[in-house]
Amino acid sequence: MKIVFLGTNGWYTTPTGNTPCILIDSKDQYVVFDAGNGIYKLDKYITEDKPISLFITHFHLDHVSGLHTLSNLLLSKDWMFTLEREEQKI
């Protein structure tokens, strides 16, 4: 198993880092946590033909701001998107 931090910054990308995105390269699949601006680097690390799962931890802008860059990978790979909503009582 390999873990690659594609972005670890907070609210915005800077010259030293991108907003949150983590890639886990396991034996059977790729797992991506969050889609910050660092996700644009994903194609450099997706080298094998295995499923890709994307988990968005929450919908703050810095965790989804890179979704638009996935178009180059969406057509050539099998993706599984998981969106869950936690219910809260008020």
What does this structure look like?
The chain has 90 residues and is mainly β. Helix content is 9%, strand content 26%. It has two helices and five strands, in the order ββββααβ. The protein has helices at 61-64, 71-74; strands spanning 2-7, 21-25, 30-33, 52-55, 79-82. It has a five-stranded mixed beta sheet, with no helix packed on it. β2 and β3 form a beta hairpin. The longest helix is centred in the last third of the chain and has 4 residues, at 61-64. It is globular.
Pick out the low-confidence regions.
Answer: none
Main sheet makeup: 5 strands, mixed
Radius of gyration: 13 Å
- Bin the helical content: under 10%
Mean of the pLDDT scores? 85
| Strand residues, percent | 25-35%
SSE class: mainly beta
What is the first-to-last residue Cα distance?
40 Å
Number of helices: 2
- Strand arrangement within the widest β-sheet reads 1-2-3-4-5
Count of DSSP E strands? Answer: 5
Order of helices and strands: EEEEHHE
